[in-house]
Design brief:
- By secondary structure, this protein is mainly beta.
- Helix content is 10%, strand content 45%.
- The chain folds into two domains: 3-93, RimM (Elongation Factor Tu (Ef-tu), domain 3); 103-174, Roll (SH3 type barrels), CATH 2.30.30.
- It is built from four helices and twelve strands; from the N terminus they run H-E-E-E-E-E-H-E-H-H-E-E-E-E-E-E.
- 20% of the residues are buried.
Length: 175
């Protein structure tokens, strides 16, 4: 497995918090407890900047993580990480519960209906309040699939396939 796939995008730095170099980090579900003192995270900017940075301390506040990274001592230091993506290793996250996948593992897999029809390729995962939504692009255009047990029947990462059950209203035209 390449080093890039060993790192999982876990969230993003939203903004500085206070004047002592802390930042507010918005992490994906279930990862708040995984960021602890001494752990090393990877941060990347949209412009391609990348570094690894050690957590000095972290605490949860109003559902978000407030993190003090080593080397960030002022609000101006913290401002430099605003909008950076935050990455964790698979090892730091640990095994996922059955029926859960890392986004980067399922983007690009082929999507088939339980009737054998090839719908296309999963191109994007949109995080929504109730559940994620998978964007599938194929010959018939784009289909949005709610990531629920009713719709997502099987994910086979080894074969690069997802099996889905299309409920009424998911296809364009309501078919």
């Amino acid at each position: 497995m390449s080093e890039r796939h060993e790192w999982i995008e876990a969230g993003a730095v939203l903004r500085p918090h206070g004047i002592r170099g802390e930042v507010i980090v918005d992490l994906k579900r279930d990862l708040l407890d995984h960021v602890t003192e001494g752990c090393e995270l990877r941060v990347t900017s949209g412009a391609g900047e990348e570094s690894r940075i050690e957590v000095e301390r972290a605490r949860v506040h109003q559902g978000r993580l407030i993190v003090k990274f080593k080397g960030l001592e002022t609000r101006d230091d913290a401002e430099g990480l605003k909008a950076f993506a935050v990455w964790m290793t698979r090892e730091q996250i640990g095994p996922l519960e059955p029926g859960r996948w890392f986004v980067q593992d399922i983007v690009g897999i082929a999507v088939f209906t339980d009737e054998g029809e090839h719908l296309g390729e999963l191109t994007e995962v949109m995080s929504m309040p109730a559940n994620d939504v998978y964007v599938v692009k194929g010959g018939e255009g784009e289909i949005l699939l709610p990531a629920t047990e009713e719709v997502i029947r099987e994910v086979d990462l080894e074969r690069g396939r997802m099996l889905v059950h299309l409920i009424e209203g998911l296809r364009q035209g309501g078919a």
